[in-house]
Write a structure and sequence with these properties.
The longest helix is centred in the last third of the chain and has 19 residues. This protein has 4 helices and no strands. It has one domain. It is mainly alpha-helical and 102 residues long.
Amino acid sequence: MAVKKTRKKAKPISKTTGKGGNYRPTSKGAGMTKKGVAAYRKANPGSKLKTAVTGKVKKGSKAAKRRKSYCARSLGQLKRSSAKTKNNPNSRIRQARRRWKC
């Protein structure tokens, strides 16, 4: 008798934009929404994920250090991306950097 193999059902792909989405569309600055961050932290206990630092910050504050760190990391991502992405002002990486005020 042949044994019938069964496949595991794949997890449904979560929406990324639109109603109930966890990510902002590129036109609104890319990055995760507050709701998206909350959903991620619920699914991954112990996570320290936070939303973007978008407002004014005091020099040397924790938020200013987070921003400086993100800007340094994302500049590396931007440099390693394709020429098409680098030169497109509406690419996700550029919009996210603009949102973070890099």
